[in-house]
Amino acid sequence: MIDKHFTTEYLLIKKLAPTDTSFIQELVNSEGWLTYIGDRNIHTTEDALSYINKTMANEHMCFWVVLLKEKHIPIGLISLIQRDYLPHSDIGFAFLPDYAGKGYAFEATYSVLHYLINLPKYATLLATTLLDNTRSINLLKRLGFNLKNEILVDTEKLNLFEITSDDFGMDELYRYYFE
Length: 179
Known about the structure:
32% of the residues lie in helices and 30% in strands. By secondary structure, it is α+β, with helices and mostly antiparallel strands. It has a 5-stranded antiparallel β-sheet with strand order 1-2-3-4-5, with helices on both faces. It has a 3-stranded antiparallel β-sheet with strand order 6-8-7, with helices on one face. Helix 1 packs across helix 3 (45-57). The model is unreliable at 174-179 (pLDDT under 50).
């Protein structure tokens, strides 16, 4: 999908790779992932490798691993997925509990968002959250997303957020955080 890496003040953001199995196994079994994304039944290195390979082979998905720049420790994941039930791509994020609430999710997601929103294909991006996922809701609002409405996916109600390139007049914010 998109072959792009990002560097911010504190982070490296690289494409998901088969070498990320240990990190993926830890992340998808973390409390936040299980609560707000769901159990992917990834309990072994082989399960994690299969999940990574499946993700990498899907042209409608792009996952980036977020690493601390100085230590090269993986701490989170940014995703871009074209879901069947949405008219535009859905950007998402998940971070290990030890790194939540420290600004890393904003810094990483903003960097990827800043790049994507300037590409014509991604001039409109969506994000979904469970109704009670206040951390993600607050981060999306801070990033400039607007709540459009609630949608029903299968039997689950989700908040649907949207941002467009017109909404993303955040060059001053970008300079404040990254220059």
